[in-house]
Design brief:
Elements lengths: L13 E10 L4 E11 L3 E5 L6 H9 L6 E6 L2 E2 L2 H4 L2 E4 L11 H12 L6 H14 L20 H14 L4 E5 L7 H18 L2 E5 L5 H4 L4 E6 L2 E7 L3 H7 L10 H9 L22 H4 L6 H5 L39 H20 L2 H17 L10 H39 L5 H31 L4 H28 L3 H18 L21 H11 L8
Parallel strand pairs: 3-8, 3-9, 6-7, 7-8
Antiparallel strand pairs: 1-2, 1-4, 4-5, 9-10
This protein binds adenosine-5'-triphosphate (ATP).
Adenosine-5'-triphosphate binds next to helix 1.
Length: 557
């Protein structure tokens, strides 16, 4: 990442975390984790699986609250304003699957880089980052998901990093940047991240599983966690020496990362007296007593060991020349959102339309609607307008209402579920207001959601000969209102019920109960349930449509 214009050199800063404790009801996830990272550093967090690495990053990012301990930036507690200058690349790559990589980056740039930055500068920034992360060849590839192929795992990981780099964060947290990458790509990526940290004076904290020796040698500082406890914190290039001083020697030419993980990974073959698996390590020293490391070269020369030196890094920040204070200027840091409500609404509308188009106007759904419309047309073709056909026409209207009730419910619920993770990620990054998202969701999806029902109702109305032109508009209008009611019911269910299967179940029960108690399938419900029909979503559309269709048959009434 050598392009001068790509990032701005950040002000020097020092992040300290001291005695962090995180626990759940049943388990302590982090136990007195302490350390620090200065701008320009690449702090690697290593440890066996389940050691608490992700929990630690979540705490720094403010996504998980800590029971005790402090996190400070240049001595003052890390607050929301500081966290706005923080980028967090999650372990899972959460994206909207139908957007291309370019569209994803474009959206991020437009919504997370302040409005005052010209559009051209934002797009140039995208190209610079894409080039430096080797993503140029897949710029117009859809992100994809388990149903439709798109970016590879490694490309998604780099896309995730690219999105965060766009915002030019001072502190970048990355969970497993190299997972899913081949060793050469992993090495290149780590070189890029290291250069980014040193050239632009950024602080990078990355959890990493099994780095190669070359990658390991790039780390400035190392935090080793085991079962939530610090096994080592200090300069990465002194960890081997430190463990050697404790009697654990790494052979020459052996990957230091492998050596560390081997001695720190619990030996699951050990069983206690009852025969249950016991968690033990092949360490000769309890984890708590391993804590700390040599901090600087001079400490080492002075013969200071882990117990003698405070857990601070002595990298001098004052020698870093500050070009400018990145995109954030005085006053900007206190603003809640990087962009205006209008920009948020416009961009969310754009993204939602792109994501939802393929899902809502799916070929199968169109074929299904065409088939049902054709079948209804054949069955009820030019039904005579007489008392004898009232039941037929009532059946046709009811079939349409039932069909669109379930269709709208499923389409809306699935749309919400697919986006929940992305919205939660965006909102954690402080990207936009929830109101902007909700408004844009409704306005972008409405034309898509209504287009097929409009065509369906048009075909059915004229094929079945339900009336004239005025009746057609009434029929269509009621159909549209019914779809909108179901859409808002689905929105409410989706907000209240996170589990998609449960939300479908709740929606199905509400609609079916509405059909049974709507006052036309069962006309003699128990007295105490008579009121329910007035709150069902099908009672009014059905009654209104039938009233209009049968208005010329006074005998019916
Ligand atoms: N909400 C929770 N309730 C109970 N236990 C939890 C919770 N969240 C995490 N854990 C447990 O805390 C431990 C640390 O989890 P964490 O995800 O931080 O580990 P990790 O070091 O990042 O693991 P990996 O390398 O496999 O990603 C794990 O044993 C996990 O099962």
């Amino acid at each position: 990442m050598s392009s001068r214009e790509m990032e701005n050199v950040s002000k020097s800063s020092k992040l300290d975390f001291k005695d962090l404790v995180v626990s759940t009801k049943s388990k302590v996830l982090l136990k007195n984790v302490s350390g620090s990272a200065s701008s320009g550093d690449l702090l690697a967090v290593m440890g066996p699986t389940g050691a608490g690495k992700t929990t630690f990053l979540n705490v720094l990012a403010g996504r998980v609250s800590h029971d005790s301990g402090t996190i400070t930036l240049n001595g003052s507690p890390l607050n929301k304003t500081h966290r706005r200058r923080l980028g967090y690349v999650l372990q899972n790559d959460i994206f909207l699957s139908n957007l291309t990589l370019w569209e994803t980056l474009y959206f991020t740039a437009m919504i997370r880089i302040p409005d005052k930055v010209p559009k051209q500068e934002k797009t140039e920034k995208i190209y610079t980052i894409v080039n430096s992360l080797g993503l140029k060849k897949c710029l117009h590839t859809p992100i994809g998901d388990i149903f439709s192929r798109g970016l590879s795992g490694g490309e998604k990981k780099r896309a995730n990093i690219a999105c965060e780099l766009l915002t030019d964060p001072d502190l970048l947290l990355i969970d497993e940047p190299t997972s899913g990458l081949d060793s050469s790509t992993a090495h290149t990526l780590m070189v890029q991240l290291k250069n980014y940290a040193t050239e632009y004076n950024k602080t990078i904290v990355a959890t990493i599983h099994q780095p190669s020796s070359q990658v390991f040698n790039m780390f400035s500082t190392l935090l080793l966690l085991v079962d939530g406890e610090v096994a080592y914190f200090g300069l990465a290039n002194m960890v081997i020496e430190h463990f050697a001083s404790l009697g654990m020697t790494c052979s020459q030419h052996y990957n230091p990362a492998d050596f560390l993980l081997e001695i720190l990974t619990p030996d699951l073959n050990t069983r206690d007296n009852e025969g249950d698996i016991k968690k033990t390590h092949s360490l000769q020293v309890p984890i708590g007593q391993l804590n700390g490391g040599f901090v600087t070269e001079s400490d080492k020369e002075e013969g200071k060991g882990p117990a003698d030196v405070p857990l601070t890094l002595v990298r001098s920040c004052s020698d870093v020349k500050i070009v400018n204070d990145s995109y954030i200027v005085e006053g900007e840091t206190t603003r809640r959102w990087p962009t205006s409500l209008w920009t948020q609404f416009k961009m969310l509308n754009w993204r939602s339309y792109k994501q939802s188009k393929g899902r809502i106007l799916h070929t199968f759904d169109i074929i299904q609607a065409a088939f049902i419309a054709a079948f209804s047309g054949i069955l009820f073709f030019q039904t005579e307008n007489s008392v004898n056909t009232v039941r037929d026409r009532s059946g046709l209207v009811m079939t349409s209402l039932i069909y669109w009730s379930f269709q709208m419910l499923i389409t809306t619920l699935l749309g919400f579920t697919g986006e929940r993770g992305v919205v939660s990620k965006d909102r954690s990054a402080g990207a936009y207001r929830l109101s902007a998202y909700y408004l844009s969701k409704i306005t972008s999806e409405m034309p898509l959601l209504l287009s097929v029902p409009v065509l369906y109702n048009t075909a059915v109305y004229w094929l079945a000969g339900l009336g004239g032109v005025d009746g057609y508009f009434v029929y269509l209008g009621i159909g549209i209102l019914h779809c909108l009611m179901i859409q808002s019911l689905a929105h409410n269910i989706a907000v209240l019920v996170k589990d998609v299967r449960l939300s479908m179940m709740v929606g199905n029960v509400i609609i079916l109960a509405g059909l049974m108690l709507g006052g036309f399938l069962n006309i003699n419900p128990p007295d105490w349930l008579l009121w329910v029909k007035y709150v069902t979503l099908v009672h009014y559309p059905y009654s209104a449509t039938m009233t209009y269709i049968l208005k010329d048959l006074p005998d019916v009434w």
